[in-house]
Amino acid sequence: MFGLLRRALFKAPPEAAHEFALESLRLGHTLGVTRLGHHREALPVRVMGLDFPNPVGLAAGMDKNGDYIDALGDLGFGFIEVGTVTPRPQPGNPRPRVFRLEPAQAMINRLGFNNKGVDHLVRNAQRRRFDGVLGINIGKNADTPIERAVDDYLACLEAVYPVADYVTLNISSPNTRGLRDLHGANELDGLLGPVAERREALQGRHGKRVPLALKVAPDLEEDAVPVIADALKRHGMDALIATNTTISRESVADLPHGDETGGLSGAPVFARANRVLAQFRSALPASVALIGVGGIMSGDDAAEKIRRGASLVQFYTGFVYHGPGLITDAVRALAGLDGE
Fold first, then answer.
1. Sign of CA dihedral 58, 60, 62, 64
2. 227 within domain boundaries
3. pLDDT, mean over the chain
4. Could you tell me if residue 302 is inside a domain?
5. How far apart are CA 275 and CA 38, in angstroms?
6. Cα(177)–Cα(180) distance, rounded to whole angstroms?
7. 25-37 as b/e: b if 16+ CB within 10 A
8. End-to-end CA distance of the chain
9. Could you say which DSSP state residue 109 is in?
10. What is the rounded average pLDDT of the residues 194-207?
11. Active-site residue among 172, 173, 265, 311?
12. Is there a domain that residue 265 lies in?
């Protein structure tokens, strides 16, 4: 059934198909149809001090504004990460800005943090009935100078703290000018220090400690890993998400749209993301959790992320190509790891 639906959706431009699919899913949720066709596989795990019904999640980017949390929750995810959200609404980059590379099971996007602003997302998060874990991914507005990026992260953290189960700092999108500069040692200290300090104040104000994760790029030089790992430890970060999209075009350069600018996701990023994941597992103590994302197209791919040191996995492009069945396949593959 999903194969037929995908063929129909893939006849439309990617962004239009995305919007239509999510609105259809919301209608199915409202009518009670989507829940009839799916159930959530149970594989409880405790990570970052949070109880996850299962370790399979939806990566940020699918639902930037938290408009579809409950509808997506019907499909069986143990956790959903919404965003990336910025303090103020912004349109993102000009269209077209999403491109399918079907032979490679990949996509290129240069969306540029298009979203309706943090206040809109918070209202949606307050109304959710989804009983899994909700992560909120935050970033900076495109017109905020990089030297003042911390102000945007702090504003978002303040706004989402009461409604988030965990918060992700996205410094790794290639589609916001200068954002990846925040991977540098001084720049990262200048971000994580104030964020950690603000978290302490918010913990006292709200009576709960919300875990913080950092999402990094897959294009890191190997010598950047210990620098980032040291910053995570010093500033008390709870998790690292490895990884975002890649700017590499090694395996897709000859495909239609393979030369488009933006971040490449899907199967071609799998090996690159896994390498970074394993490097961080070696560099970080067990107290800092890893979330593996990038190129998951099957249950076996999800299991490989766990073997490389992840405690949780996420996907987005794999969900576009393989549909809700990938959630069940991933949970069952992870359950099977207990016997290895």
1. positive
2. yes
3. 95
4. yes
5. 33
6. 8
7. bbebbeeeebbee
8. 33
9. E
10. 98
11. 173
12. yes
Residue 337 lies in a domain: no
Quick one: pLDDT band at residue 1, thresholds 50, 70, 90? low
Strand 106-109 versus strand 98-101 pairing type: antiparallel
> Which pTM was predicted?
0.96
- Give the separation between CA 126 and CA 312, rounded to whole angstroms: 24
Exposed (0-12), middle (13-18) or buried (19+): which is 223, by Cβ within 10 Å?
A: exposed
CA distance 277 to 28: 36
Distance between CA 322 and CA 182 in Å, rounded? 33
What single string gives the DSSP state of each residue in 201-254?
HHHHHHT----EEEEE-TT--TTHHHHHHHHHHHTT--EEEE---B---TTTTT
d(Cα 182, Cα 91) in Å, to the nearest integer?
A: 23
Q: In terms of DSSP bridges, do strands 50-52 and 45-47 run parallel, antiparallel, or are they unpaired?
A: antiparallel
Does residue 311 have an active-site annotation? Answer: no
Tokens of 35: 């829940």
**What range defines the domain where residue 217 resides?**
2-331
SS3 at position 38: coil
**Does the structure show a pLDDT above 90 at 339?**
no
Length of the chain: 340
CATH assignment of the domain containing 284 = 3.20.20.70
242 Cβ contact list (under 8 Å, min separation 6): 216, 218, 273, 276, 277, 280, 290, 291, 292, 293, 294, 310
- Give the residue carrying structure tokens 């009983």: 131
Q: Nearest-5° angle of CA 302, CA 105, CA 39?
A: 45
How many separate domains does the chain show? 1
Instruction: Report the pLDDT value the prediction gives residue 35, as an integer from 0 to 100.
Output: 74
Q: Read off the tokens for 206.
A: 């709200």
pLDDT tens sequence across 215-255: 999 999 999 999 999 999 999 999 999 999 999 999 899 99
Closest CA to 164 of 224, 222, 212: 212
* Beta strands 263-266 and 106-109, pairing class: antiparallel
Total Cβ atoms within 10 A of residue 15:
16
